[in-house]
Amino acid sequence: MPKKHTLTEEEVADLKEAFSMFDIDGDVSCMGSRPLLRPTRFLGTITIVELKEVMKSLGQNPTDKELKHMIHSVDDNGDNEIDFEEFLVLMSSKKGSGKADPDRELRDAFRVFDKDGNGTISKSELKTLMSNLGQRLSDEELEAMMGEVDTDGNGEIDFDEFKQMMSS
Q: What are phi and psi for residue 36, nearest 5 degrees?
């Protein structure tokens, strides 16, 4: 029997965006989907190759055995890939694991972007990470993204700005 998630509609919407970043090739199992704002049933799958690429871009170097374990821990249909419903189950299982610091996961994510560890995300760090995730941004798109998030106008994103962006 497939596992169920315990996420809110808002959390599901946020995770849909994250899933599409993991699904590097944007494969979809249904015709007529659009690359952005795809309904849940039109989302593709995360393969072991995509999971490995994403993990590498996040500074991790899992073995093939570890990657297979990650996938098999939620792969209800046995296709050796993670579909969106399985991804929700995985994320739901991680929910609430850091109650002592509600910002812990955000801080961990922030550190991934902050490659030089100086406490801010520069334009070049953002561009590099997005590129590693398969999202090639033009200079205009990068500038627009930075301008929207960089509320103090210093040209870099600090943790509070990152947190605000992630909660909006």
A: -105, 155
